[in-house]
């Protein structure tokens, strides 16, 4: 007599072996899309609409990407590629090499969590950049305001210094005038210089070129161009300087009437 086998145990083992989970590899679908001529953003919009309408899977179960395959050219159609993958096969991140029309393309899909994380990182970087730019603008504005205030203070100081200089010049002129009046009261007065000036005007040769007239107490002289005496009469002694004061210009000293030689032949410095 044959003892029957334990079928229940065999069936249980067979059932356990049969229900072993099998992980299917993610499969990325790809197709080419040709868009008509237009502006770049119009072509991208048309390619995205076409990719959604021609999806091989229900829209709720698929994630798609659209990529331009050639550079935009005016008045020429453009070729795009649409890539599809099941939403449940992405996981955290899915990278795949897809062959389309003999060309290999690297495609990366990320989960919504990864997209949110990337968006948060980009948003944080944008906020940090905005704060940095805002701080730089504030620093530039503050520096400009400080520079403007410094320039205003400098302009006020310059105006005050110019006013002080003008007042000092006025005081100096008034002091010189007072000293001249005092010297006139103490000295021989204006008769001597006026008399010498009148004599020079009366006795100057017509062709002589007198450039300057000098008078100091005890000295009367004129600057004349040329080496000839600039006077026509000789009732007063005239003496030429030993060297020209400038090129072609000589200094002529005048002595008093009845004096053998002039008082001075050079201008006293």
Structure write-up:
The protein has helices at 7-18, 40-53, 112-186, 191-203, and strands at residues 29-35, 62-68, 78-86, 93-100, 103-110, 210-216, 219-225, 238-240, 249-254. The protein has 269 residues and is α+β, with helices and mostly antiparallel strands. It has three domains: 26-110, no CATH class; 111-187; 191-254, no CATH class. The chain has a four-stranded antiparallel β-sheet with strand order 6-7-9-8, with helices on one face. The longest helix is centred in the middle third of the chain and has 75 residues, at 112-186.
Unreliable residue stretches: 1-19, 263-269
**Content-based structural category:** alpha+beta
The helix count comes to 4
Strand content: 15-25%
Helix content: 40-55%
**Largest sheet: number of strands, sense, barrel closure:** 4 strands, antiparallel
